[in-house]
Amino acid sequence: MSLERSLYEAMLRMRMVEETIAAIYPDREIRSPTHLYIGQEGVAAGVCAALGRQDVVAANYRSHGWYLAKGGSLRAMVDELFGRATGCSGGWGGSMHLIDVDAGVMGTSAIVGGGMSHAVGSALADRILGRAQVSVAVFGDGAVEEGPWHECLNFASLKRLPVVFVCENNLWAAFSPLKDRQPPVEIHERMKAYGIPSELVDGNDALAVHRAAAVAADRARRGHGPSLIECSTYRWLEHCGPNDDVAQGFRPAEELEGWKARCPILRMRSLVTDEEDRSIRAAVMREIEDALAHARRAPWPEPSWKPAYYEV
Ligand SMILES: Cc1ncc(C[n+]2csc(CCOP(=O)(O)OP(=O)(O)O)c2C)c(N)n1
Predict the structure, then answer these.
(1) Whole-number mean pLDDT of the chain?
(2) Which is the closest atom of ligand 1 to the Cα of 169?
(3) What's CA 189's distance to the chain center, in Å?
(4) Which residue's CA is the nearest one to ligand 1's atom 17?
(5) If we measure between CA atoms, which residue out of 139, 226, 234, 235 comes closest to residue 187?
(6) Which of 146, 158, 69 has the alpha carbon at shortest distance from 115?
C-alpha cells in the first residue's frame, strides 16, 4: 500500500470513529468526558507512520487518534469509553486514559504535560536496557506552560535520549488563545536554549509531518538524541465534548472556517480513487459497528478490579 493511501486511511478511520462518538454521545452510553481530535488527524497519522510497533507513544487526553494510529485495538477503546470491563483500562479510565502496551501506546494522561515525563522515562529505560526504540512525547501548546515541559526537555537533551517531542499547536488551551498565554516566540524556536533540533511543520499535511517524524526518529535511533516537531493544527470542536463551540463566543467563526478549509483529510482526497475511498469507508464502518456491538454486550467491571501491574 502506498504511503499516501495508508495516511489517508488512517486519518479517515480516526475521523469516522470520532464522528460516531460525537453522534452517540448525547445517548449517554459513553461514560467519560471526551476530548475529540477532529481536525488534527494529520499529526498522529504522519508521526505514527514513521514508527515501528515497538516504538512508544505517550500522549494527553485528546488521544483517540494517537491510540488508533499507533495500532491500538478499536474494540478495547470503545469498550473503555462505555466503561466496560473489557476496555483497555478495565473500564475505569475512560477516554483520557487509553493504553495498549502491545501496540506501543504507553498511555494517555489527563495531566497536561504528563505524557512528556512518561515518554522521557521510557526512553531512559530503553537506554539502560539497551533497547533500540524511540519514545514519542505528544503534548499541546498548553503543556509549554507547565514545569515538567522544561524538566523533560532539559533532561532528554542532557542525556541525549531517543525521544521525539511532538507539540500539537492548535492555538487554544480550553478557552484561552495562545497569544494571551505565552510571549510571542514560536515554540520550536525556544529549542535553541535546550540544544534540541526543532522544526515547524504544517500539521494538516500528513506527508510533511511524516517526513519530519522520519528524520527525528532516525536521529533518535542512531543515538543522536531528542528532536522537537511543532505541528500547527486546529481542533474543530469544543475543548471537551461533541459540540461546536463557536456560539459560546470564544473562538471566531472565521478562524474555524479557515482551518476547516485546510482539512488534513480533504487535502489528500485526490490521492485515492473514488473506489478506494468507498472501500475504506465501508471497511471502517463495519469495524465501528462491530466495536459498538461488542461494547454494548460487554460486562461492567467488578468493584474489586485492580490493574494487572498492581501486584508487581
Ligand atoms: C497539570 C494540569 N494543569 C491544568 C489542567 C487543566 N487543563 C485541562 S486541558 C487544559 C488545556 C490544555 O491545552 P493544550 O495543552 O493546548 O491541549 P489541547 O486541549 O489544546 O489539545 C488544561 C489547562 C490539567 N488537566 N493538568
Answers:
(1) 96
(2) 16
(3) 23
(4) 140
(5) 139
(6) 146
Instruction: Give me the torsion for CA of 122, 124, 126, 128, rounded to 10°.
Output: -140
What is the rounded distance in angstroms from the CA atom of residue 17 to the CA atom of residue 156?
A: 34
CA nearest neighbour of 166 among 206, 192, 198, 127 = 198
- Position in ligand 1 atom list of the atom nearest CA 240: 19
Positive or negative CA dihedral for 258, 259, 265, 268? positive
Alpha helices in 25-72 (DSSP H): 41-48, 64-69
SS3 52: coil
State the pTM of this model. Answer: 0.97
The beta strand positions in 61-104, using DSSP E, are none
What is the rounded CA–CA span in Å between residue 140 and residue 230? 9
- Alpha carbons 186 and 193: distance in angstroms, whole number: 13
Top mutation candidate among 109, 112, 238 for ligand 1, by most atoms within 8 Å of CB: 112
Question: CA-to-CA distance for 245 and 35, rounded, in angstroms?
Answer: 13
Q: 37: CA distance to ligand 1 center in Å?
A: 14
As a whole number, mean pLDDT of residues 151-179 equals 98
Domain ranges of the chain: 3-298
For the cut 70, the answer to whether the pLDDT of residue 309 exceeds it is no
The 10 Å Cβ neighbour count of residue 58 is 29
Q: Please provide the size of the chain in residues.
A: 312
Alpha carbon 41 to its chain's center: 8
Task: Please name which of 43, 260, 44, 167 lies closest in space to residue 251, comparing C-alpha atoms.
Answer: 260
CATH of the domain spanning 3-298 = 3.40.50.970
Give the chain's largest Cα–Cα span. 53
Is 89 in contact with 309 (CB distance < 8 Å)? no
**Is any ligand 1 atom within 6 A of the Cβ of residue 141?**
yes
pLDDT, one tens digit per residue, over 172-206 is 999 999 999 999 999 999 999 999 999 999 999 99
Q: What is the pLDDT of residue 310?
A: 58
